[in-house]
Amino acid sequence: MGYNLTIDQGNSSAKVAVWDGADIIFDGCFKQFESENIADLITRFPLIDKAIYCSVAEEGIDVIKLLNKQNVKTLVLDNSTLLPITNAYKTPQSLGRDRIAAAVGAWSNHKNKDILVIDLGTAITYDVVTADGCYIGGNIAPGITMRLEALHNYTSRLPLVEPNGNCPLWGEDTTTAIRSGVLNGIVGEIYHYKKQLSQSPIVIMTGGNATLIESMLDFSPEIDHHLVTRGLNSILIYNENN
Known about the structure:
Distance between the termini: 17 Å
Structural class: alpha/beta
Radius of gyration: 19 Å
Helix content: 25-40%
Order of helices and strands: EEEHEHEEHEEEHHEHEH
Number of helices: 7
Strand order of the largest sheet: 6-9-8-7-10-11
Number of strands: 11
């Protein structure tokens, strides 16, 4: 049985992972994701025979061509791709592919439970998968850095504050007032959305700021930094079997 390759192409970098069935055996991040990276991966893992490509930007035509040339059967994730969950989003063509992949990744590990998926990246996305495997939608909000920069850029005197540092409930000076306002505002969003679901939903967090926000919560969410790639692998397996 061959290996699966998952490629999550973002705006400035690409996350890749090699899977042996449901087990991840390699993961990495490329700032400049080009054909040479793919060639090196295939040389290192010659058992790769299937791949799935997900991009929030333009399609990586060169990468896909190289994969096909190397006899790696490649699935490009789009709104017509078969999914193991139901997508109830009213405009599936506008839904971020990384968001639906993260939803699938969460559901693949937690069937029969309501799930709140929170991706704390440049933007913060909140997505919901019901216990019966239906993606019902979600919300998009500014991320931590975006909020801090907005307070600095759209006012005349507020400083640009780093997210890490002292964060009392009530700010003791301008710096902590800004940091606390931004971070506790996000914590409040999480509590609000969690309350809208079942009595004990699964909360899964991913993204670069997941650990920072986790430390401020009074419950323990699951942290999964492979959530999107896990979902991509699940989608690839599902399409191979259907």
